[in-house]
Structures are given as C-alpha cells and as structure tokens.
C-alpha cells in the first residue's frame, strides 16, 4: 500500500475512532500526537518558516511551534468529532455567541448579490462553516482534489453532511467558477480559503511582507457578480477545556473590502489576511510552502512566468 493510501485510511479511521472516544481522551491524544510531531520535527520545519514571516522580526521559539502544532491537532480532533457535534443546540448557541461582525455579513446578504467570504487556514474553519449553515443556510466552497480519490471523497462526504456544498477545484467538467458565479447571483454565500495558490496561476502579492502568489478567484467573482468580499478570521480564544461556558472557538467577520482591479483587490485580500494571521499566528495551520522563496525551483519558475493570473 502506498504512503498516500495509508494516510487516507488513517483519516477515514480517525473519523470513526475519535467520534467514539470521550472528549477529554480525544483531545489528549491529539495533543500527544502534536507533541510527538514537534519533537520529531515532522512537518514543523515549513510551519516554523511560515510563522517567522507572521512574527517578523520576533524569533519563532520551539515553544511557539509546539503551541501551533497543538492548535493544528485540535483542528483535526474537532474535525473528526464534528459530524456528531454539529446538531447540538448547545454548540450552536455557543457559536452564535462567539461570532463577531455578523452585521457585516447580514448587510452584504441584504443587498441581494450574495457574499464572498475569504479565510486563511486558521482556527477551525469547519466549525465556522457549521455556524454559517445555521445562520444563513448552505454555502458553496471549493476543495483541493486530494489523492488518493478515496480521501477526497471522504472530505467531501464529511463537509456535505455538515451542510456545505463542495465543488472540486479541478474536474473533467471544467472550472468551478460558473457554478460559483451562479450561486452568488442567486444571493448565496461562497467561501474560499485564500492564501494557497492551488492552480499555480495566481498573481504575485505582498503577503506578510514577502512575495507570494495568491489566487485571483475571489477578486474575479466579485468583479463579475458584484458580490462583496468579506475577510473572516477563525481562531481559538483558549484551550479546548470549557472556560466560562465556552470552548474557545472564535470568528470575526470584517467589513467588505473595497474592490477595484483584479490585481488591487487580490492585494487587498492579502493585506487583510496578513492582519488576521498576525493577530493569531499560532492558529495558522500552514504546514505547506506559501511564499515564493520556499517553492521548489520548478514551481517558482511556473509561478513567475505564468502570465494568465487566473488562479482560483
């Protein structure tokens, strides 16, 4: 069995196993896994590089990397347990109380042109999605078509059961953009994770003070449909143990961005994401290369020389 097949089997097993475990045990296992990865430096080198950009000029300490790995592990523990948590009225009430800036989303939806929400890979964006379904109904998002296909199917099934509509980033039927445009014209919500250029056709921007290629999908959708772009920031306010009746999920929805050209709007998204990442760096779960300086030479050449700028 290939390594990716083992990984897929592990994720699928996680969805079954962690839902059956007592809550505290599930979180403790997650923390243990994070600490083991941190001690063995498995996957943490790139995380530390990314955190250095967020914290510059302050140094990234080993303790901070450990904290970031624990935050990442918390996301996965909650992802595995979320299918059995999502309909809990207490959870929904807690999420309602934890969201800031709801008025910005409501105002956007009242205008009838839908809304584009752009997030970074931070906090628990799936938990935020559960709140969004509860507050405004089904929304549409785009997912990387992971390999093996069984893993991609598992993620799509997981998020579909939570009430999300999930479109593949690439498929035989073409780009998801026409469907996303139609959802916005229907007054619906589109959510996009915004700081990874999956298509390798994004445009160069300044992200956290460093050159990076970001996708232009959100800017293009706004330009073609008139839908506003809102940046949302997901984070943890404290550890997983309940404190003052909350379990530490936070999300802030910011006012709509001023949109102009594709290039300027994408830079505005990068600026806003830089602010949200800097505000909660340990909750930024970015273990992959994002900045141009960290890309392998072949991909860096492609990113620099592809002039289409149509990344999604």
Automatic annotation (TrEMBL):
GO terms for cellular component: plasma membrane. One of its GO terms (molecular function) is acyltransferase activity. Keywords: Acyltransferase, Cell inner membrane, Cell membrane, Membrane, Transferase. NCBIfam families: PRK07920.1 (NF005919). GO terms for biological process: glycolipid biosynthetic process. It is found in: Cell inner membrane. This is Lipid A biosynthesis lauroyl acyltransferase. InterPro entries: LipA_acyltrans (IPR004960). It comes from Corynebacterium aquilae DSM 44791.
């Amino acid at each position: 069995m290939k390594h990716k097949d083992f990984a897929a089997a592990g994720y699928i097993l996680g969805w079954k196993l962690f839902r059956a475990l007592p809550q505290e045990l599930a979180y403790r296992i997650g923390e243990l896994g994070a600490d083991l990865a941190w001690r063995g430096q498995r996957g943490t080198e790139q995380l530390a590089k990314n955190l250095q950009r967020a914290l510059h000029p302050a140094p990234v300490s080993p303790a901070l990397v450990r904290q970031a790995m624990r935050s990442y592990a918390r996301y996965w523990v909650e992802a595995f347990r979320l299918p059995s948590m999502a309909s809990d009225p207490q959870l929904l009430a807690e999420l309602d109380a934890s969201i800031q800036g709801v008025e910005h989303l409501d105002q956007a939806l009242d205008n009838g042109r839908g809304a584009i929400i752009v997030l970074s890979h931070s906090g628990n964006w799936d938990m935020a999605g559960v709140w969004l379904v509860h507050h405004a109904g089904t929304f549409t998002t785009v997912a990387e078509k992971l390999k093996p296909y069984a893993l991609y199917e598992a993620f799509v099934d997981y998020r579909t059961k939570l009430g999300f509509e999930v479109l593949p980033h690439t498929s035989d039927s073409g780009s998801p953009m026409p469907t996303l445009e139609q959802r916005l014209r229907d007054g619906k919500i589109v959510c996009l994770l915004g700081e990874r250029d999956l298509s390798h056709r994004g445009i160069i921007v300044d992200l956290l003070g460093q050159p990076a290629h970001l996708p232009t999908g959100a800017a293009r959708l706004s330009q073609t449909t008139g839908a506003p772009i809102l940046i949302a920031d997901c984070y943890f306010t404290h550890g997983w143990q309940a404190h003052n009746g909350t379990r530490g999920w936070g999300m802030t929805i910011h006012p709509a961005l001023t949109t102009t050209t594709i290039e300027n709007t994408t830079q505005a998204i990068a600026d806003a994401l830089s602010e949200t990442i800097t505000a909660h760096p340990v909750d930024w779960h970015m273990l992959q290369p994002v900045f141009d300086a960290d890309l392998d030479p072949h991909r860096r050449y492609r990113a620099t020389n592809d002039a289409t700028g149509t990344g999604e």
